[in-house]
Specification:
The protein is an alpha/beta fold. It has a single domain, classed as Ribokinase (UDP-N-acetylmuramoyl-L-alanine:D-glutamate ligase). A hairpin with a 5-residue loop joins strand 11 and strand 12. Helix 4 runs parallel beside helix 5 and helix 8 packs antiparallel against helix 9.
Length: 336
């Protein structure tokens, strides 16, 4: 275990200044988050459930689309490759992405699928009452997979990092990951993966895989409680996934980066936790942009740790701005 590296405020601003020149190619499962927001004043006479008096509907990009949104919020360029249905939710998702200047030319429409949508009924106090998922999770194949592969080929040439955002909704296949890893090696750019454990054997050769601590425990059959546990779990995870490096996100315990033979532990910098939804998307978006901007992997992980600390204080799948990230680093540096 080595000491925690921490980029200085000047180094942080130098890296953030390069974010606008970085393009990240995000390949993965795009989703639409639909929030039905209302007030609860009584319980239904029909069943012991709250009655939500509708106030408004909100829509946000989710899944891989939220990763792209995070890249744009941090000032980088994002090209998104994924699969949507031929439905109203797809149009709504494209509107949300277009409004945030995310490249949507890589989205493939499959009329046999529905656009993955998570409908959450929440109160005006941000309490979730229920969630309904609309999805088709069979892996893409045939002409649809070929179209996805073609779009990856089209956008990879301009990317500084290729990022795989896997939510087990069918976009990520073994052959597509093999192709992406090969393209990364050919172009000498990193391939980052936000994983799902049933696909752990797909990620062979990836530069960095970022399981959370629950995923690391499932993949390694180990309990992760201490820094030493995290180091060993990262080593076993790397062997199992056959990837180059591993970053375990550990919630309130921070992060563990296994880079080569050494592990670096980053304590959490979160001041308060309101909602952890989408925090993994923020982490990997920050990692990708920082690495594309020339940061070392440890510097990128430190910035991602700061970004996670900011985003968990917000409700829903939120984002972080460059100014928020720079300010967070400066505040911590002032406390040295």
């Amino acid at each position: 275990m080595t000491a925690t590296p921490r980029p200085s405020p000047d180094r942080t601003r130098e890296l953030l200044g390069r974010f606008p020149q970085a393009t990240i190619l995000i390949v993965g499962d795009v989703m639409l988050d639909h929030f039905v927001v209302g007030r609860v004043n009584r319980i239904s006479p029909e069943a012991p459930v709250p009655v939500v008096e509708h106030d408004r509907d909100e829509y946000r990009a989710g899944g891989a689309a939220n990763v792209a949104h995070n890249v744009r919020a941090l000032g980088g360029s994002a090209e998104l490759v994924g699969v949507i249905g031929a439905d109203a939710m797809a149009e709504r998702l494209k509107q949300e992405l277009d409004a945030r200047h995310v490249g949507i030319g890589g989205l493939v429409t499959d009329s046999s699928r529905r656009t993955t949508t998570k409908l959450r009924i929440v109160t005006d106090r941000n309490q979730q009452v229920a969630r309904v998922d609309y999805e088709t999770d069979e892996e893409v194949a045939g002409s649809v997979e070929d179209l996805v592969r073609g779009n990856i080929d089209r956008f990879a040439s301009a990317a500084g990092v290729i990022l795989i955002s896997d939510y087990l909704k069918g976009t990520i296949t073994r052959t597509l990951v093999d192709d992406i890893v090969a393209k990364g090696r050919k172009r000498r750019i990193p391939v980052l993966v936000d994983p799902k454990i049933p696909h752990i054997d797909y990620y062979r050769g990836a530069t960095l895989v970022t399981p959370n601590h629950h995923e690391a425990e499932v993949a390694t059959h180990m309990r992760v409680r201490t820094d030493e546990d995290a180091t060993r779990a990262a080593q076993v995870f790397r062997e199992r996934a056959a990837c180059e490096h591993v970053l375990i996100t550990r919630g309130e315990r921070g992060m563990c980066l296994l880079e080569g033979p050494s592990a670096v532990h980053f304590p959490s910098v979160a001041q308060e936790v309101a909602d952890v939804t989408g925090a993994g998307d923020t982490v990997i978006a920050t990692l990708a942009l920082a690495m594309a901007a020339g940061a070392s992997m440890a510097e990128a992980a430190s910035l991602a740790n700061h970004a996670a600390g900011i985003v968990v204080a917000k409700f829903g799948a939120a984002t972080v701005s460059p100014e928020e990230l720079a300010d967070a680093v400066e505040r911590l540096d002032g406390g040295r």
